[in-house]
Design brief:
Blueprint: H1 5-23, H2 29-56, E1 65-69, E2 72-76, E3 81-85, E4 91-94, E5 98-102, E6 110-113, H3 119-138
Antiparallel strand pairs: 1-2, 2-3, 4-5, 5-6
Helix pairs in contact: 1-2
């Protein structure tokens, strides 16, 4: 999420604005220092807000079961069941620990730990994900 085009553009614009305040003259230096302080405080404050949100809502921390098949992905928890068809997802990716399913450029990816899958299920899920990516390229 940190390196999406939209985020990079906004950071560049912020830095340009800071530089303009710096070169605008001595009377605008306090605005420059304020902008730089916000630039460093905002990510930390956002992180703290997200941590607080996750801690307050057990839906995010309760045990879940994830199943998948040709129709899509089903996530079930103690009080809910969510069925998402593969057409809801735009992109699939993975790293050494997690699978990522992106719904759009404006939402947080669905993150599934690989440890929750057997090696055979990981391969099967990877096939569905690669088919999703191939389908997205053909659109």
């Amino acid at each position: 999420m940190l390196f999406r085009r939209r985020r990079i553009r906004s950071v560049i614009l912020w830095l340009v604005a800071c530089a303009l305040f710096y070169v605008a003259g001595q009377e605008f230096r306090y605005v420059f220092y304020f902008c730089v302080a916000l630039f460093f405080i905002f990510p930390w404050a956002s992180y703290r807000g997200i941590v607080r949100l996750v801690d307050q809502h057990p839906m995010y921390t309760n045990a879940k079961t994830v199943t998948f098949g040709p129709a899509g992905v089903v996530v079930a928890g103690p009080n809910y069941r969510s069925e998402l068809g593969w057409s809801m997802f735009k992109h699939f990716s993975e790293d050494g620990t997690y699978f990522y399913l992106r719904q759009s450029d404006y939402t947080v990816d669905s993150v599934l730990p690989k440890a929750a899958f057997t090696p055979q299920k990981q391969e099967e899920f990877r096939r569905y994900g690669n088919a999703l990516n191939a389908q997205g390229k053909s659109r």
